Amino acid sequence: MSIVQQVQWFPGHMAKTRRKITEDLKLVDIVLELLDARIPASSSNPVLREIIRNKPRIVVLNKSDLADPKQTARWVAKYKAEGLCAVQVDSKTGKGLPALYRAIREELKEQIAGWERKGMSGRPIRVMVLGIPNVGKSSIINRMLIGGGAGRAEVRDKPGVTRQNRWFTIGKGFELLDTPGVLWPKFEDPAVGERLAFTGAVKDEILDIEGLAGRLLEVLSCLYPQSLEARYKLKLPEGPVAGHELLELVGRKRGMLVSGGGIDMERAAVTVLDEFRGGKLGAVSLEWT
Ligand code: G4P
After folding, report:
1. Residue 135 CA, ligand 1 centroid: distance in Å
2. How far is the CA of 39 from the centre of ligand 1 (A)?
3. What is the pLDDT of residues 57-99, one digit of tens each?
4. CA of 7 to the centre of ligand 1 (A)
5. Which one of 195, 214, 242, 264 is least enclosed by Cβ atoms within 10 Å?
């Protein structure tokens, strides 16, 4: 069974999510679209543009600490060429957040000038975060709160807003909607599903772990052979090698044996996926532009 078949979002769930996002959008000035810097295209949802229409948007390439900086810079340039502002962020440490705040002000400079003309200078800029599961929405929100002075983070219900949305004050002049919009990942293309599974955006319980780790090793042996060799202290054979052979190689190198001398493939698979997701294989981008 392919990953595409293994993971399904129910149409009812999608419709509900979409309605919620559409409502929340009315409350904010700008949307932060969180993408995984290692797989910017696969972690985006093409329906987003349809949902947000003309609402200003900034692409946030999150988990940039785990991505290949050369590739991330190329993605930023690509978005810029398309007229979109993109900023790289590491939500674990907060790196990139000051640049993100600057980008938001720049993106909204006409609106801000308009507010000033109307005597509304100092009106806070209202922001919401959107992204697929596991892309780092909670992490960036928490980071923004810490940056805004966690202890002083103001959480309050706004008069006039009937729903129970709360606003966080995040640094000077910004308010953040407390609940991020959760977009569904797009699975029609098996390669996209696979990349989402590699990065952990898809739950492992429903996946064939050994097959997945094998495929990841195949991909890495093409894109970052030296990182693979360095991490597992092995020499990759010449030419293409099947995933299960690579996994066996890793298992053998790590001494992951079962009684009888065979390789504990499941343990090797879990190790490879964990180490990749934890950045132990170095800064790696699975989608190049
Ligand atoms: P979500 O709300 O969009 O579902 O994502 P969430 O913030 O829960 O983040 C999902 C995982 O990604 C978490 O790891 C989180 O720590 C990690 N993460 C988020 N942003 C970054 C980033 O910029 N860099 C790195 N390296 N990791 C990031 P976890 O293993 O599920 O949890 P934890 O043990 O790290 O807390």
Report:
1. 7
2. 15
3. 999 999 999 999 999 999 999 999 999 999 999 999 999 999 9
4. 21
5. 242
How far, CA to CA in Å, does 188 sit from each of 2, 7, 191?
11, 10, 9
Tell me the CA–centroid distance for residue 35 and ligand 1, in Å.
Answer: 12
pTM (predicted TM-score): 0.90
251 lines ligand 1 (CB under 6 A): no
Q: Is the CB of 277 under 6 A from ligand 1?
A: no
Taking phi first (over 0 means left), then psi (-120 to 50 degrees means alpha), and beta for anything else, what does residue 136 get?
left
**Spatial contact of 35 and 201, defined as CB atoms under 8 Å apart:** no
Instruction: Report residue 144 as tokens.
Output: 């923004």
Please provide the DSSP assignment of 184-253 as one string: PP--SSHHHHHHHHHHTSS-GGGS-HHHHHHHHHHHHHHH-HHHHHHHHT--PPSS---HHHHHHHHHHH
